[in-house]
């Protein structure tokens, strides 16, 4: 291992991918969340499936899953991972005029899956925006966060309630 410990900086101050080969293989799970706010009439269109671009929720779910699998191509220095499970859920919350997104990624490996879960949630949100932007330019994406993670040396983490 070059540099000192698990760091993205080598002994010359240059960015590098962390060498995780000495780390123990453990079951690792990460859950990320995000929310997308839109006009009530836009949310109704999404729920009813009447958007001109088609199935907004199904497309956003698929985009999130595909993004998780390609995180290493999007985020510099991320390891390519063999994810064993990816789940993306999109839950409309009519009284708040938003859609809550939750992405869960799992594997047995030497490095965590937080970036994969966060990427899945983010891309699902961006896809929601893309699918409705023609009728609602005021869509807001926010609250992208790690909700929970388990496995690895750092153990279990649960985010405080927002």
UniProtKB/TrEMBL annotation:
The active site is at 130. InterPro entries: MoaC, MoaC_bact/euk, MoaC_sf, MoCo_biosynth_MoaA/MoaC, Mopterin_CF_biosynth-C_dom. Substrate binds at residues 77-79, 115-116. Pathway: Cofactor biosynthesis; molybdopterin biosynthesis. Pfam families: MoaC. GO terms for biological process: Mo-molybdopterin cofactor biosynthetic process. Catalyzes the conversion of (8S)-3',8-cyclo-7,8-dihydroguanosine 5'-triphosphate to cyclic pyranopterin monophosphate (cPMP). Homohexamer; trimer of dimers. Belongs to the MoaC family. This is Cyclic pyranopterin monophosphate synthase. It comes from Kaustia mangrovi. The gene is moaC.
């Amino acid at each position: 291992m070059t540099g000192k410990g698990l760091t993205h900086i080598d002994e010359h101050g240059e960015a590098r991918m962390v060498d995780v080969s000495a780390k123990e293989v453990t079951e690792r799970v990460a859950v990320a969340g995000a929310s997308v706010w839109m006009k009530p009439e836009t949310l109704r269109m999404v729920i009813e499936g009447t958007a001109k671009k088609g199935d907004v929720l199904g497309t956003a779910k698929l985009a999130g899953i595909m993004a998780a699998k390609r995180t290493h191509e999007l985020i510099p220095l991320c390891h390519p991972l063999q994810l064993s499970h990816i789940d993306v859920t999109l839950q409309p919350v009519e009284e708040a005029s938003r859609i809550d997104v939750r992405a869960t990624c799992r594997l047995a490996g030497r490095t965590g899956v937080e970036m994969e879960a966060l990427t899945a949630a983010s891309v699902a949100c961006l896809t929601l925006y893309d699918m409705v932007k023609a009728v609602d330019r005021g869509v807001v994406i926010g609250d992208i966060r790690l909700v929970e993670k388990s496995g690895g040396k750092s153990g279990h983490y649960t985010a405080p309630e927002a």
